[in-house]
Write a structure and sequence with these properties.
Length: 960
């Protein structure tokens, strides 16, 4: 009887273990890409010879490349850090200054936000400053380490209480008091916006305190530093990927404030160089710092919104971009101009947050505007010329920059040239910002007294306004196109967007301007240039500048007013009383409900018969032969004719790479995340820091190093860069996107993606598009006007996804209107392929999480190529071909195969291949090991069950 109990217990245990291992095997096989990345398992590399090294590295070894990459990260940090405040030249400090560090982030900074990429670690400020020769207070530093702060991506700022410094006062009473350096941080990431409390439940953190505002722990620490009276200078270092509320700096006696963003593995070395005067910071804001981070027009509709009659997971959330085009500085600066002019209710009560007496006032609402940033040196800029050639549609500007020297810095310095434009505007026209960035450049390193003339040259397409009401000049049967309205155009340089606008106003003879602090200024008319357009141009950009395709309205049904007339009043500069109200309650119409809850694909009645297509043909064309074959060459059809239906279906099921397709000599490969570095590589500075350099050369180098890392790690694809807009300061992934300004994102993406593609790296520019908040990113219906969509979310990606640039894009989880982005034909095909000429791979984000609303057939019909990390889509695609005999999907999968194989033939995947080279499939070691483990446990389970049965029989016989 006793043995029976033992065998029964063992059998039960083994059944449980077997069930768990079977489930684990199934889960691991469906998440094969994740497992391979975790284990570092890569397909075996094809041996590369001198004559098959088609995409070669510039370096002899990975170590040599990474030494250069470290230098790049440090330089990016120097040029991307933004000196926001520097009263009485408090910075730089003496290189050997004796200082005390405060703040949890001084010991444990945020190196990277919470999303895909390398581990979140690197050199901290303490080590960097010691290395730079500073004398650092060990007593206070040890107290910080001992306090062991913590942070999450959903609320806790991770600061230690001021009480943690108790008993350390004597350590800085007579020494280590040249400066107190307080490092403040904010952390956010994937699936986690920062807390703002406007809509939706508060998560962790103190109730009632928006996460970007000053928290009590910080207030107490600032008071401790200030009230001690021991420090000659107080320096704040902002380690945040988000625009914090910084209007309090003067209240706590802060002499200097340096924004550093997220510095990656080595960026803190650059921060120490800045603080010690070995380098001059030359970053400029890619974002706006308002006095109250809740005050922007977009913030009024950020957060969690639910249709009151829908309940399905990922099928009941919405978001309305009621701010229209007025995101970030485009809101604040446009309203400022109207305040100065005394028009359009600009000083009315709507939108008042920091202003006094209930009347909106720019100086009260603003702290640091877009484009702002100081240098140790004093620069002057002279606008030499601006020429808008309306026949070639190019603008050329020349600016002379002079370094006039610095008070306490002897090194060289760089300055940023920012060129803006003001477009003519009248009520009833397409909305236009009072000022918008059109191009930028950075000088070389200039010594005191040196000058340099910078030339900017760019297409006027960058400032054409999309008018959804315009007659399309290329096809008058259609409505909507990009236009140049008649009137006066003012180009202006400035130290930031506000300065440029004041220069425009000065050129127009306006008076009464003031700076961001409310001080009267006159502006400089010499830094502005007026041009005129006599009549409407609705022809030039009624067609795409990349492909010549007609550009007209395609997104009327992405506006909530299309379904529910007058549901939303969009912000217009014609009346600032239209400052957005929160759209807190919507009832889905039957049409909305159908789109939100159901897949939409139906096999077309005129779908071709599958016999139309050739497959499994013996045409003898190897993958490597297609390396230089043009996209429109008919040889691609013959090449794809060789694929079987199962091979066509295989392509859609990405698993962080793909298995080999032996029949055509296509090798297995691997890829991975993310925008700020490969998962198994070096952590770059956050993309936002790279943007803030305003240095096109460094952005190009970033793309080159992303490709170099891919080459040496053995990745053929990386999910990078990121192009969504910083619609609000609270969006969790702002750090890995370029800017609040879509034009700046356009220009940065254009540079970085081309550098990656030219070196054979398949970057998937993500998350295309409209993924401008993390809350409800799965399935949220994102409503906006067509102008907003084209000049905002689409524009942010357009530069990088135009023909000849990025070789890939990763689509977003959200919907555009009610249609999942990956299933949106107008976005994925009409615009991306037709207007922009994109010939790369468009894959979904990890699509297992979105299968309930992102249908396989819907997405393939729209033009999606692959389902990221989701090989489970392969049998679905195969069924559409073989079981359903869907000739329409068959044709679409042939298109998928062409885009996919064309792209990979232009990647470093071809390295080592030749026409005589054969490829073999590859099975990672852990798959047979897992299967073997299942078999062993299964055998043991059967054996234990048999022994239990035998013992039970024996026991019963004994009883008898």
């Amino acid at each position: 009887m006793k043995k029976t109990y033992i065998w029964r217990g063992l059998c039960t245990l083994l059944v449980l273990v077997l069930s768990l291992t079977i489930f684990g095997r199934s889960l691991a096989f469906t998440r094969e890409g994740d497992v391979n990345l975790f284990l570092g398992t890569l397909p075996p590399a094809v041996q590369v010879t001198d004559d098959t090294n088609y995409y070669a590295s510039d370096y002899a070894s990975m170590d040599e490349m990474r030494t250069a990459l470290e230098d790049h990260i440090i330089q990016t940090q120097v040029e991307g850090s933004v000196l926001l405040r520097n009263e009485n030249d408090a910075l730089p400090l003496a290189p050997n200054a004796s200082v005390t560090l405060f703040g949890f982030a001084a010991a444990t900074p945020v190196y990277h936000g919470g999303s895909g990429g390398p581990p979140n670690d690197g050199i901290n400020l303490y080590d960097a400053m010691k290395e730079a020769g500073f004398q650092v207070n060990e007593t206070v530093y040890n107290a910080i380490v001992a306090a062991n702060g913590s942070r999450t991506k959903t609320g806790l700022i991770g600061e230690i209480p001021a009480s943690a410094y108790a008993g350390t006062e004597s350590s800085y009473a007579t020494s280590y008091n040249d400066a107190a350096i307080y490092v403040m941080s904010r952390f956010g990431g994937e699936e986690g916006d920062l807390n703002h409390g406007l809509q939706g439940d508060w998560q962790e953190g103190p109730a009632g305190v928006p996460e970007l505002s000053l928290h009590q722990e910080e207030i107490d620490t600032l008071n401790l530093i200030k009230n001690s009276g021991k420090f000659s200078k107080i320096i704040v270092v902002v380690n945040s990927g988000y625009a914090m509320d910084l209007g309090w700096l003067a209240d706590y006696g802060v002499d200097a404030c340096l924004w550093i963003g997220y510095p990656g593995n080595y960026g803190m070395t650059g921060v120490a160089q800045i603080l010690g005067g070995q380098a001059d910071p030359s970053g400029r804001n890619a974002i706006t710092y308002a006095a109250d981070s809740l005050s922007s027009a977009a913030m009024q509709n950020a957060g969690d919104f639910t249709f009151d009659n829908l309940t399905g997971l990922y099928k009941n959330k919405y978001l309305v971009y009621a701010e229209g085009i007025y995101v970030g500085y485009k809101y604040y600066e446009t309203r400022y101009q109207d305040q100065v002019l005394g028009i359009n209710n600009a000083n009315g009560p709507k939108g008042v947050y920091a202003s006094k007496n209930g009347a909106w006032n720019y100086a009260d609402e603003m702290v640091y505007t877009f484009g702002a940033g100081k240098s140790y040196a004093d620069f002057t800029q002279e606008l030499l010329s601006v020429n808008w050639d309306k026949s070639t549609h190019t603008v050329t500007a020349q600016v002379k920059v002079t370094n006039n020297g610095a008070a306490n810095y002897a090194g060289t310095s760089k300055d940023v040239v920012q060129l803006y434009v003001q477009l003519p505007y009248e009520a009833g026209q397409a909305e236009k910002s009072a000022i918008q960035l059109v191009d930028f450049a950075k000088t070389s390193a200039l010594a005191a007294g040196e000058s340099e003339t910078v030339t900017l040259e760019f297409s006027d397409y960058i400032f054409a306004a999309y008018d959804s009401a315009a007659v399309n000049g290329a096809d008058t049967s259609k409505t909507g196109c990009y236009v140049f309205d008649p009137g006066e155009y003012y180009f202006a340089i400035g130290n930031d967007a506000h300065d440029a606008l004041n220069n425009v106003l000065a050129a127009k003879g306006v008076t009464g301007m003031f700076d961001a602090e409310g001080n009267p200024v006159e502006g400089d008319a010499a830094k502005a240039h007026k041009d005129e357009l006599a009549s409407l141009d609705n022809t030039t950009y009624a067609v795409s500048p990349y492909t010549g395709a007609v550009v007209s309205n395609h997104f009327e049904d992405r506006d909530i007013n299309y379904f529910i007339p007058d549901a939303v009043t969009y912000l217009t500069r014609s009346d600032w009383n239209t400052f957005p109200d929160t759209v807190a309650s919507l009832t889905a119409t039957p049409e909305i409900q159908n789109l939100m809850e159901n897949f939409q694909y139906e096999k077309p009645a005129d779908a071709p018969d599958i016999s139309t297509y050739k497959y499994k043909q013996d045409n003898g064309i190897a993958f490597i032969e297609m390396k230089d074959v043009a996209f429109d060459d008919p040889k691609w059809d013959s090449f794809i004719d060789q694929l079987t239906p199962s091979e066509l279906a295989q392509i859609v099921g990405d698993k962080m790479g793909l298995d080999a397709i032996e029949s055509i000599g296509f090798p297995a490969y691997a890829g991975g995340d993310g925008p700020d570095g490969h998962q198994s590589g070096v952590l770059f500075n956050a993309e936002m820091v790279a943007t803030s350099t305003f240095n096109k050369d460094l952005l190009e180098q970033r793309g080159e190093f992303m490709a170099e890392e891919s080459y040496w790690i053995g990745f053929r694809q990386i999910y990078s860069p990121g192009g969504n807009i910083h619609r609000t300061p609270y969006s969790g992934r702002n750090f890995e996107y370029y800017s609040e300004d879509a034009n700046l994102s356009y220009l940065c993406g254009e540079i970085q993606t081309k550098a990656m593609a030219d070196r054979g790296c398949v970057g998937t520019f993500k998350h295309f598009c409209g993924n401008d908040q993390e809350t409800n990113r799965h399935g949220v219906a994102t409503f906006m006007t067509e102008q907003t969509y084209r000049e905002g979310p689409l524009r942010g990606f357009e530069g990088g996804l135009q023909a000849g640039h990025s070789m890939g894009t990763m689509t977003a989880y959200n919907r555009i209107g009610c249609i999942p982005t990956a299933s949106d034909y107008e976005t994925m095909t009409t615009v991306l392929r037709g207007e922009w000429g994109f010939t790369g791979i468009n894959m979904t984000d990890s699509s297992k999480d979105s299968a309930s609303y992102m249908g396989t057939a819907d997405a393939i019909r729209a033009g999606t190529c692959q389902f990221n990390n989701d090989p489970g889509r392969v049998p679905e695609a195969s069924n559409l071909l073989v079981k359903e005999k869907d000739g329409f999907i068959w044709g679409k999968l042939r298109e998928v195969a062409k885009y996919y194989l064309y792209t990979m033939s232009r990647s470093n995947l071809v390295n080592g291949l030749s026409e005589t080279e054969t490829v073999q499939n590859y099975t990672p070691w852990w798959k047979p090991a897992f299967t073997g483990l299942n078999v062993v446990i299964g055998v043991l389970t059967v054996g234990a069950a048999a022994m239990y049965v035998l013992s039970e029989i024996k026991s019963r016989k004994g009883d008898k």
